[in-house]
Every structure is written in structure tokens, then in C-alpha cells.
Design a protein that fits this description.
By secondary structure, the protein is mainly alpha-helical. It is built from 18 helices and ten strands. The strands form five sheets. The protein has a two-stranded antiparallel sheet. Helix 1 packs across helix 2, helix 6 runs parallel beside helix 8 and helix 9 crosses helix 13.
Length: 493
């Protein structure tokens, strides 16, 4: 029997966006479903709801812990994994990335297998299929980033049919690009506002997939198309970009995990501000330039006794000293219900809503988690073009737009290709801090093996990174136990 249960679970999941008039029904029969467009919309909402799994929400800041830009509370399970103690039975991200993505893929395959039963126009049908192909591409891309080649399923499978050897990473990436090409051809060419993926969402993900697979020319070309199309732009308020008050119809957001209000308790503020689960490291603080555009080790503006002074404005819109007071939008000083202190002396600011303070488990939020945004398009273009042809005028223009948004000086002219590469990498670090992106960056740059072993966590434990295996996670032992054809990733046998 096919995995109909997986699809049905997706269909009855809670809504993850505001594009439906009501949540899916509590019970759905696969024999009588797919009878009209309303049911198709309910099914589509169920597929989108897979984004609300651990891997595609604010909890993916665990990847920043892995990347060494933040510490985690030392009682958190991610710490042992971040320190290089990674085994097939480690649990945590070793398991949940795999299970979250395949749950999403199963829902996508179930939807694509059944949607043509619905009596809707060909145009509408292809838009719905395009959205789901985009989501399937996102799920598979996430898998390849963490496990390399993985089992490839493009239709529902039985338990026995699921027991296959992993495809090569190249084969999976080819499927990802095929799905994205279909999405690009069929999704509406408009801004992202309703929670539905649009053409620009698929184009941006394709640029990222190509970049992460060192296809520099192709990545630069599609990123350039997004820039020239002009559908998206940088939002003029960096701080508010990450708060629900600034996210509606935001021109910078290209795709996000969406929430309704009141939808969830304010887990992000509780995890970051209350329990100090995420603690920015000194290494990240030091990566922010001074206001003159120079690194702190050469800028005359840097004052070691006052790290806040004369710095890139993004620093204080991302990180604060643990003891620093905060103020709500009315200018009132507000406090935290701290259950822990920061081991590094720093706390996050990005994504933290001071108007919600003081918080508790009844605090509600409709704050979305941004997965793709226009600043990334600009910096992906700059990186890819620099790798192809060096720092031409278009490379400077793309990166300077990101810097101009926060009134940082433009980059000095005359940089070499290597010098520009270094500046782009640091720009990505400070622009996307606490967004779960850097772990993927330092792995694809192959700099994790040099950076991670320099880190010492609170308590004195030095991190380890074995380049022969740690660029990939092991397949979870639970998957190895049920699939005899799956071959464990190197170094984890």
C-alpha cells in the first residue's frame, strides 16, 4: 500500500500561511478528496505546513552554533554535536533534518500524484504543481547540504520501495534543478506577499543551489536576472525586517516560513532571551567592521574598552551585551524573565521583539522566519561573479548596495579577486548572522576545517572538525536499520 498516511497527515496539518480562509478539515478521506479547488488549496496548505518542522524555523539557528558564531546553552544537546562528537545515533540535527525533509518530500509527492484529479484549469494546476516542486527542491537541497547524496523519490513509495541506495549528490541536484525549472516556468512573476512561492522564490533558490555547487557562471546569471527584474529590493529598516511589524509585503523577503496570529507562543524570544539558548561569540562580534569600513584590528575608531562605539550598525541590531537594557517602541525600558545567563556575555537582538516583553509561555507571535531574501541575491551574485571574472564594477555595486542600506562605507576600489572574496565572505557573515546560513557557507568554502578547531567553548572544551567526515552528517542509525541498501557516509561506520 502506498504511503497515503503521510499525505493525509500533510493535508490535515495546521495552516502555515494566511492565504486560506480556514484551516484544513480534521479528517479527510483519500478516496473522496481532490473533488474541487478548495480541497486542492487545503492540500497545498498541508504541504506548506511541513516548513514548520524544526529545520525550517528559527530553531535552525542551531546551525549557527555548529558554525561557531554563537554558543549554545551548555546543557543543550547541540553542543556535543558541535564539538565534533557526531555519530549515527547522536539524534538532534543528525535525525531531525533527515526526517523533516523526507516528511516534506512525501507530502510533495503525494500532492503531485493526486492533484490532477481536481477539476481546475491547466494554468491553476501548473501553479500549484510549481509551488510544490519548489518546496520539494527546497527539501532535497537541504538534504544534499547535510548528507550529500540521498535516496531520491519523486513519487509515493511503499515501505519496501523506499529501501533504496542513495543517489549521487549530482543526481539529486539535477532533480532539484529540474523541479526549480518547472517552478520558474509556472509560478507567477510577482512579489512575495501571500505565503505562496513565486517565480522569484524559485529563481533565488536555484541561484543558491548553483552557488553551493560551484556553478559560478550559472548562479551569477540567474541572480543577475532577479536583480534586473526589479521585483525585489532591500528593505530600508534592517532591524524591523526581522519583526512581524515589518514583514507584511516586505520587498526584501522572497520566501519565508509563515505564521498566523495568534499562532505560536513566542518561542524565539523565549529561547534566545529567556533561556539564553543562543549566545553570540566574541569571534562574531569582532567580525563587524568599524564605521569607517575597516576591520577592528586596523581601524583607529576601534575602542577596546567600548566595543559598541563606532561600529557597523548591524552589530547592535544583531547583538547586545547581556546586561544591556532594552526599550520597546514607546521608549519604555523593559526587562526579561531570565532563566539563564549568557556564557559569552552577549545576547541576540535580531528577531527579538522588545514590545512582547516581559514574555512567558502565553506570549503569542505571528513572526515569520525568513528563508530567502534579496540581500542574499546581491551577495550571491557578487560572490559568483567574482569567482568568474574577479571584482568588476557589478560586483562592487551588488555588495555596496547591501552596505549602503546600513550606511556603511563602500568597499575600497582596486581589490584583487582574493581580497574581494575575503570581503564578500565577511559581508555574508555579518549580514546573515543568527539566520542559520553560515554553517552552509563555511562548509562549501571548505574553511570549517581551519576555523572550527580554533574555537574553545565555555568550560574549556576545544572543538574538533575532521574534514574526512564532518562536512557531511551521518545517516541516522534508525534509517540504516530499516534500509539495508543505504550506504553510510564515510567515517561513520
Amino acid at each position: 500500500m502506498k504511503f497515503i498516511a503521510v499525505g493525509i497527515i500533510a493535508l490535515i496539518s495546521l495552516s502555515c500561511s494566511d492565504f486560506l480562509d480556514k484551516n484544513p478539515l480534521n479528517q479527510i478521506s483519500s478516496e473522496t478528496f481532490w473533488q474541487n479547488e478548495q480541497e486542492a488549496k487545503m492540500a497545498l496548505t498541508g504541504v506548506y505546513s511541513r516548513l514548520r518542522a524544526f529545520t525550517f524555523t528559527h530553531k535552525d539557528t542551531e546551525f549557527d552554533i555548529m558554525a561557531g558564531d554563537v554558543c549554545g546553552n551548555q546543557g543543550h544537546s547541540i553542543i556535543n554535536i558541535a564539538q565534533g562528537n557526531i555519530e549515527p545515533n547522536s539524534g538532534g540535527i543528525v535525525s531531525y533534518i533527515y526526517s523533516n525533509c523526507y516528511a516534506g518530500i512525501s507530502s510533495c509527492n503525494f500532492f503531485l500524484e493526486n492533484i490532477e484529479k481536481t477539476p481546475i484549469s491547466t494554468e491553476t494546476l501548473n501553479v500549484y504543481k510549481g509551488e510544490v516542486c519548489f518546496l520539494r527542491a527546497l527539501f532535497y537541497f537541504t538534504l544534499t547540504e547535510h548528507y550529500g547524496g540521498v535516496p531520491l523519490y519523486t513519487s509515493p513509495v511503499t515501505i519496501e520501495e523506499a529501501k533504496v541506495k542513495q543517489s549521487t549528490k549530482e543526481e539529486v541536484v539535477n532533480q532539484i534543478l529540474s523541479d526549480l525549472d518547472f517552478a520558474i516556468a509556472n509560478l507567477p512573476d510577482k512579489t512575495y506577499s501571500s505565503g505562496h512561492a513565486v517565480k522569484g522564490s524559485a529563481m533565488t533558490l536555484k541561484a543558491k543551489v548553483l552557488l553551493h555547487n560551484q556553478k559560478w557562471q550559472e548562479s551569477a546569471e540567474i541572480a543577475d536576472r532577479i536583480i534586473r527584474d526589479g521585483k525585489f529590493s532591500l528593505y530600508n529598516d534592517f532591524r524591523n525586517l526581522f519583526l512581524s511589524s515589518g514583514q507584511k509585503n516586505n520587498p526584501e523577503i522572497i520566501f519565508s516560513t509563515r505564521y498566523l496570529n495568534p499562532d505560536i507562543y513566542s518561542d524565539l524570544d523565549i529561547r534566545w532571551s529567556w533561556h539564553a539558548v543562543v549566545e553570540p561569540r566574541q569571534e562574531l562580534v569582532d567580525a563587524y567592521e568599524c564605521a569607517d569600513g575597516k576591520p577592528i584590528d586596523i581601524s583607529p575608531l576601534y575602542d577596546p574598552s567600548n566595543w559598541r562605539l563606532n561600529r557597523d550598525p548591524r552589530l547592535l541590531m544583531t547583538i547586545k551585551a547581556f546586561e544591556d537594557s532594552v526599550y520597546n517602541s514607546a521608549g519604555q525600558k523593559v526587562g526579561f524573565n531570565y532563566n539563564a545567563v549568557s556564557a559569552t556575555g552577549y545576547s541576540p537582538v535580531k528577531y527579538c521583539n522588545w514590545d512582547a516583553l516581559p514574555i512567558n509561555y502565553s506570549t503569542q507571535s505571528d513572526q515569520d522566519w525568513i528563508l530567502l531574501r534579496y540581500a542574499d541575491v546581491l551577495l550571491m551574485y557578487a560572490e559568483a561573479r567574482n569567482e568568474v571574472s574577479g571584482p568588476d564594477a557589478s560586483v562592487y555595486d551588488a555588495i555596496n548596495k547591501v552596505r549602503d542600506r546600513v550606511n556603511m562605507p563602500q568597499l575600497p576600489t582596486g581589490l584583487s579577486k582574493d581580497e574581494m572574496r575575503k570581503r564578500i565572505r565577511n559581508e555574508r557573515r555579518v549580514e546573515f548572522a543568527l539566520e542559520g546560513i553560515r554553517w552552509g557557507d563555511i562548509k562549501r568554502w571548505k574553511t570549517a576545517e581551519t576555523y572550527i578547531p580554533t574555537l574553545v567553548d565555555p568550560g574549556g572544551k576545544r572543538r574538533q572538525f575532521d574534514p574526512s567526515k564532518h562536512y557531511l552528517l551521518p545517516f541516522p542509525q534508525s534509517e540504516m536499520d530499516v534500509n539495508d541498501n543505504l550506504v553510510q557516509n564515510p567515517g561513520y561506520n
